[in-house]
Specification:
Layout lengths: L32 H6 L4 H11 L19 H7 L14 H16 L7 E8 L2 E12 L4 E2 L6 E2 L6 H12 L28 H5 L14 E2 L6 H9 L16 H15 L3 H10 L8 E2 L13 E2 L2 E2 L3 E2 L2 H4 L1 E3 L1 H12 L3 E2 L2 E2 L3 H7 L27 H5 L5 E6 L3 E8 L4 E8 L4 H15 L28 E4 L5 E5 L5 E7 L4 E10 L5 E2 L6 E10 L5 E11 L8 E9 L7 H4 L5 E4 L7 H6 L4 E4 L8 E5 L3 E9 L2 E4 L14 E3 L6 E4 L2 E5 L1
Antiparallel strand pairs: 1-2, 1-15, 2-3, 4-10, 5-9, 6-10, 7-8, 11-12, 13-14, 14-15, 16-17, 16-23, 17-18, 18-19, 19-20, 20-21, 21-22, 22-23, 24-25, 24-31, 25-26, 26-27, 27-28, 28-29, 29-30, 30-31
Helix pairs in contact: 4-14, 5-8, 5-9, 5-12, 7-8
């Protein structure tokens, strides 16, 4: 069994063969590479989206497509201790701490979805006012977690390449807006526009890189060379959009910062961060696991009766192992304008750049509430914004852990919560941060929670143009326009190789399409104009709106792009339909191989959308590819946010080749 749960991969919004949709706040019927990778990104934002794809939560069980099983959910509650190992200073936040203890203890003790361990810390000014760990760091050893127990914090790690880059700017070694080919002359891609990519693009998800190199991302032993492997993979890839055209969550951009740091300093990224950031910040319980650690306390996944240590080999994008208390030192430096305990770590201008909205110049941005910073998921945190308070947020996850980090710079306040997947980290973090701000008088009252009940039916616009197939990086959507003016929304299902109904929706007085049973609502958005190359575009997106976290703010994002039918597939591609393929070059210690096994990928087609091929498995998810030639299947969509996050190309050496490549992964025909 695994102690902690991972979300249904079809819920993903926030990767590739490791990726696509895992939102650690949801439980899932299975764990896949897609899930593993996706949680490196905005999994908790996606949690809300995920919830809307499946209006129920299913926990690990053994069966078809379900390989991680509880032998009895009640057993977890029996072995989890009460909250312990706390070190609470005198504080004005007694109510918030009591609320947090109650919420977290409930999460680790809930027999329906138990979590092995959760750790939290909160800082005000220069004082850590709360640090506490709950549950077990080692399930078989019955070892309690303490505030010194380290967790893999996933994409919260992205703040460190952003800091590294700003330090390099301070030292005059790079600028954010210089094309990275100046620092990486051997970097190349098949799209000539790769030469326009800047470090700012890399750190704000606007580079156009395909998404995530899933090969050997999560393993049970350290695997070196991930960043170099990613750069080599990109040499055989096209961009998925022009640099700066849109922002879609992209792990590979941060991995390329590793290569820049190495090129301009001569130090590996892990060594540079250690010497330039972790040591001066006195983060003595934080590091990248480049080798098997010989000391320290770690939260350890317990999988199918065996305890492991998780290694995240994509250091810059998600590889830091840390504690909430260590991360409070980082928070003090951030709201201290780059200074920690009298020592300047980075310039105030660098911190300001990280906290600046990077989305204002995007050409395609149908979800303007997504306010990417440099490294930050948002520099206008929606729930805090609803309370009138500026705040910055970064979330993250790995195959086994889920983390939320909030910094409220004007209030000199921060909180980080981390733990085994299976709990809603964002809901806990939003609730506690707002509670603390109310308790210390920053805000007079909490913002109103948003309702999820459908408003009255209203007379709607014509919807015939919205009908059709919408592609994304997960699995296609189908929109049907009914004669009575309602919509039916379906999603392609791998089990049946057909369409599964999500629900029927009617136009409502707020301008969105609702059902009476789904808390999500939908509408269409059309974005048109000319790109930076002067080419006209006109994209129709299916938009989804949800209320994530603690329920104080809406989140909207495009979940698919409408696609037009193409000419019929030629014989080379027709002959591939129905064939199956197996991954051949992951490490045996890779988590998805060691835990999931190696499920075959397959080719299929959609009768409703001629001219495309559908390829994937539980790991890759199911993407629609455009045949570019008999040996190349290209990307078909440009979807911002998360639902276009990890796109691939399929390459064959010849029309009769018995192997294919996706990124740096090689698949052989079965």
């Amino acid at each position: 069994m695994i102690w902690g749960t991972v979300a249904h991969p079809q819920t993903r919004s926030p990767c590739i063969k490791f990726a696509k949709f895992v939102f650690a706040a949801l439980a899932a019927p299975w764990l896949n590479k897609s899930a593993f990778l996706h949680v490196l990104g905005n999994q908790n934002k996606g949690n809300a989206v995920a919830r809307c794809n499946r209006n129920h939560e299913v926990f690990f069980s053994v069966g078809r497509r379900q390989f991680l099983g509880y032998t009895g959910a009640g057993m977890l509650a029996a072995v989890l201790p009460a909250c312990g190992n706390d070190d609470i200073h005198p504080t004005p936040y007694e109510q918030t701490i009591a609320l947090g203890q109650q919420m977290i203890q409930q999460a680790v003790s809930d027999p329906s979805k138990p979590v092995a361990a959760i750790s939290v810390a909160m800082v005000k000014g220069n004082t850590v006012v709360w640090q506490q760990a709950f549950g077990l760091a080692s399930v078989p050893g019955q070892i309690k977690a303490t505030p010194q127990t380290r967790f893999n914090i996933g994409s919260v790690s992205k703040l460190f390449p952003a800091l590294a880059a700003t330090i390099l700017v301070d030292r005059g070694l790079i600028t954010l807006d210089t094309p990275i080919v100046k620092y990486l002359p051997n970097f190349t891609m098949l799209s000539p526009e790769y030469a326009q990519i800047t470090t700012r693009h890399l750190l704000s998800h606007a580079s156009g890189l395909p998404g995530t190199n899933g090969r050997n991302l999560f393993t049970f032993e350290p695997v070196a060379g991930y960043a170099a492997d990613t750069q080599a993979e990109l040499a055989n890839s096209h961009l998925k959009h022009l640099p700066g055209e849109l922002a879609v969550y992209c792990n590979d951009g941060f991995t390329m910062v590793e290569q820049i740091v190495l090129a301009v300093t001569g130090q590996s990224f892990a060594d540079f961060v250690q010497s330039a950031i972790l040591v001066p910040l006195k983060m003595t319980h934080s590091s990248y696991l480049t080798s098997v650690p010989s000391s320290g306390s770690f939260s350890l996944p317990y999988v199918n009766g065996t305890q492991h240590q998780e290694f995240v080999n994509a250091y810059a994008t998600g590889g830091l192992s840390s504690t909430p208390t260590d991360m409070m030192n980082l928070a003090q430096m951030i709201y201290g304008g780059g200074v920690f305990q009298g020592q300047r770590i980075v310039s105030a201008a660098g911190i300001a750049q990280m906290g600046t909205d990077q989305t204002k110049s995007l050409t395609i941005n149908p979800s303007p509430e997504w306010r990417w910073g440099l490294g930050w998921d948002t520099v206008v945190q929606p729930a805090l914004n609803a309370a009138g308070v500026p705040g910055w947020e970064k979330d993250g996850g790995t195959a086994f852990y889920s983390t939320e980090f909030f910094v409220v710079p004007n209030s000199q306040f921060a909180l980080l919560v981390t733990g085994n997947t299976g709990y809603d980290a964002r809901a806990i973090a939003e609730t506690l941060v707002l509670s603390a701000l109310k308790e210390d008088g920053t805000i007079s009252s909490l913002p109103a929670k948003l309702g999820t009940t459908a408003p009255p039916v209203a007379s709607g616009p014509g919807i015939a143009s919205g009908a059709g197939i919408y592609g994304n990086s997960d699995s296609p959507y189908q929109v049907l326009a009914n004669a009575d003016g309602s919509l039916q929304i379906n999603q392609w299902d791998a089990d049946t190789r057909g369409w599964a109904q999500i629900g029927g929706y009617r136009y409502r007085s707020d301008g969105w399409w609702w059902s009476d049973t789904d808390t999500a609502s939908y509408r269409f958005a059309v974005v048109s104009g000319n790109d930076s190359e002067g080419n006209a575009f006109n994209f129709r997106y299916l938009m989804k709106r949800v209320v994530p976290g603690a329920g104080y703010a809406y989140l909207t994002l495009p979940v698919g792009q409408q696609l037009a039918a193409l000419a019929a597939l030629d014989s080379a591609w027709q002959q591939r339909v129905g064939t199956q393929w197996t991954l051949t070059n992951d490490s045996p210690s890779a988590v998805p191989i060691a835990v999931l096994g190696n499920p075959p990928a397959f080719f299929a087609t959609l009768a409703e959308l001629p001219g495309y091929v559908l390829y994937g498995n539980e790991d890759l998810r199911y993407q629609l590819f455009v045949p570019v030639s008999d040996t190349l299947g290209g990307m078909s969509i440009k979807v911002p946010g998360n639902f276009g996050r990890d796109l691939y190309e399929i390459r064959f050496a010849s029309t009769s080749a018995a192997t294919l490549t996706i990124g740096s992964s090689i698949y052989a025909r079965i």
